[in-house]
Design a protein that fits this description.
mainly alpha, three-stranded antiparallel sheet, 43% helix
Length: 237
């Protein structure tokens, strides 16, 4: 469970400029890398993202302007090391409905999380195959694809139960040397009833324009880079 001081709660009115800053795919990726892997210099991040150090340095300064990253206490020679200020970015879904820009950012962040999932899956499979993870991780790892019928109240309760249990297990495993990062992506996306005989609905991209997301990523989620790590909707209803 992430403590409140390690959580950045975005407000679409007060943080409009910060939200706009986070729509750049490289900034999302840099923030995710710092959250997942810890402090790094612009040059180190440039190698990992295959960007120029001038580009990563510029985008890190933009992230610092809006308090997403800050200079770490120690420098690597003459170069600054950067660290993420928060472990998690969250928001209220209801508040984000107030403007097209904030809704677009929510869509962007969700797609970044899906890309993060794809890259984390590839990394997990490679870690198992190459022996970087102990065999005891093979059985408990996995993904589920369920379609339960729930009310808004039950879905909200499910999020709350998951948060409490995750906090309990994280605290229990804190001192266990076997504990490692686990990419845990949860989704609760209600779907309207579908009429099999109806005309196909236009894709969201066709209705509202292309959703912009990280070109590559994964994060801190990681994403071979890394992406928006640690995001959640505070109000899942």
């Amino acid at each position: 469970m992430v403590s409140e001081e390690r959580k950045r709660v975005l407000d679409p009115e007060q943080d409009a400029a910060a939200l706009k800053a986070l729509t750049h795919p490289l900034r999302i990726r840099l923030l995710g890398m710092l959250r997942q892997d810890g402090p790094a210099t612009a040059s180190e991040l440039a190698v990992r993202t295959r960007e120029s150090s001038a580009s990563t340095s510029y985008h890190l300064r933009v992230l610092a302007k809006y308090a997403f990253v800050a200079e770490a206490g120690n420098r690597d020679g003459r170069e600054r090391r950067w660290q993420a200020v928060h472990s998690l970015t969250s928001w209220s879904n209801k508040a984000m409905e107030g403007s097209p820009d904030s809704l677009a950012w929510v869509s962007l962040s969700r797609r970044a999380q899906v890309e993060h999932l794809e890259r984390s899956l590839a990394r997990h499979e490679a870690d198992i195959a190459d022996g970087r993870l102990a065999r005891e991780w093979v059985e408990p790892s996995g993904m589920s694809d369920l379609m339960p019928r729930l009310t808004p109240e039950s879905l909200t309760e499910l999020w709350e139960v998951l948060d409490r249990k995750l906090a309990e297990l994280t605290a229990r495993d804190a001192a266990d040397p076997r504990a490692t990062q686990v990419m845990l992506l949860t989704a609760g996306l209600p779907l309207a009833p579908h009429d099999p005989g109806a005309e196909p609905q236009p894709a969201a991209e066709a209705r509202s324009g292309p959703a912009r997301g990280p070109a590559t990523g994964p994060a801190g989620t990681d994403l071979a880079g890394t992406d928006l790590a640690g995001t959640e909707a505070e109000d899942a209803s």
